[in-house]
Amino acid sequence: MNKSGHLWERKEKKMKYLFLIFFMNFLPPCAGKSLSRDGNYSKTFEDIKKEIGGYSNIAKAIIDLAVHGEAQNRSYERLAVFADTIGPRLSGSKNLDAAIKYMFSALQEDRLENVHLEPVKVPHWERGEEFAMMLEPRNHSIAILGLGNSVATPPEGITAEVIVVASFDELHRRAQEAKGKVVVYNQPFITYGETVQYRSQGAVEAAKVGAVASLIRSIASFSIHSPHTGWQNYQPGVPQIPTACISVEDAEMMSRMSLRGTKIVVYLKMGAKTYPDSSSFNTVAEIVGSKYPEQIVLVSGHLDSWDVGQGAMDDGGGAFISWEALSLVKDLGLRTKRTLRLVLWTGEEQGGVGAEQYYQLHKENISNFDIVMESDEGTFKPMGLGFTGTDEARDIVKEIMTLLLPINVTNIYDTAEGIDIDYWMRDGVPGASLHDDISKYFWFHHSHGDTMTVQDPNQMNLCAAVWTVVSYVIADMEEMLPR
Predict the structure, then answer these.
(1) DSSP element (H, E) containing 21
(2) 356 flagged as catalytic
(3) How far lies 405's CA from each of 59, 374, 378, 434, in Å?
(4) What is the pLDDT of residues 376-410, one digit of tens each?
């Protein structure tokens, strides 16, 4: 189709959207009351089902605009410009500062409301130069990524024999052998939640038995000789030793060598530094509610990333579909009864540092938070929504998910995931997370492979549609979700 044909098609679609919104403004408003402070609800579930069913046309308009209309591929294209321009965004880095300034301007240019920055303090760690080499039984360059918060080696580096273990239990059984050596963990990947303890605690457990350093098999379900980084924690009273992740391939190779009785010697040099906490910001934008502006539906992702790759998957995609949710609502000329609030967190990779400070600042108004939503497990093909809340609230959200039947994303799963929203969910605020196909997520997670190449524009369109329909309907219903 030529250029003029495209323009006419866009105008025709826009006219359809405007007519739809005009028509809906003449529909009779749903009767009912907002959530009373004593927790009583005026509507039966059948009333609520009818109310949700009344959003069918709006849901279709959102889906059409996000998946087929003028906004098609917009979240992907916005993310590509951002990721290519800024790159990785480690807590405390100049790149993260640049990312926050970029987003502050972009959200203003998108004509969102109350765009502002909320100050927080975040850790500032830099990996510096890193190098690892196997010296015996042969020379072999070992690919490494130092783990966050790791100390450096001495300037001359560390040369030591290796002990390979498959678990903490094996390390403790062989504690006498580990003294003065480099502990290499070759733990199998089971699930991320179960296996990540080796990354977070590996250095501490190795130090307890007198090791001089630890090298940990990357927490990855698949590898092409690519190490994966992440945060690790030291413990008071335990010596701090240098620690890094190595590729699955190198961990398995050293395990095979060790089982054959081969002596392994490695040289390790790491220049990591930890600086005083840096000033940073959570980035916030809103569409202010028309009837209950003090009540909040929060959509979010985190803006910081690790210092490798582009942070496109973790969590550029989640951050940008959250932005897209507000953009789609605005583009359709809609305004929810409650305030739709976008928060782009900072310092998530260091344990939800920015989100905790946000929670401390805003928790006095916790009764006004209707739901907190975070997307931080990729924006691959969406399958549904993870949800944490009461059975009554779950039933309502399950009904909302039926509005997504046109794109066949109607499932609701147990528990929402997201360290940034955990603080709220622990206090009883309903929470939701995007549930998508993460079968390849840990191939790229925290590695050089987390780039725009991982992202798929069609999948991001679907994710944006899911995120927008759910947040819009919850923000516009007459009553808050039960808690």
Answers:
(1) helix 3-24
(2) no
(3) 10, 22, 22, 16
(4) 999 999 999 999 999 999 999 999 999 999 999 99
What pTM does this model have? 0.91
Strand pairing report for 273-287 and 113-126: antiparallel
Q: How many CA atoms lie within 13 A of 103 on its CB side?
A: 32
234's tokens: 């030291």
Return the C-alpha torsion angle 163, 166, 172, 176, nearest 10. -20
Environment class of residue 60 by beta-carbon count within 10 Å: exposed (0-12), middle (13-18) or buried (19+)? middle
pLDDT at 317: 98
Going edge to edge, which strands form the sheet with 292-302? Answer: 113-126, 273-287, 338-345, 292-302, 369-374, 431-436, 382-388, 411-414
Q: Closest by alpha carbon to 410, among 327, 470, 457, 456?
A: 470
116 - beta bridge partners?
A: 284
Helix ranges restricted to H, 246-316: 248-259
* Closest alpha carbon to 43 in 470, 401, 396: 396
Exactly one of 348, 377, 417, 478 is catalytic; name it.
Answer: 348
Chain centre distance of CA 343: 12
Is-contact 34 480, C-beta < 8 A? yes
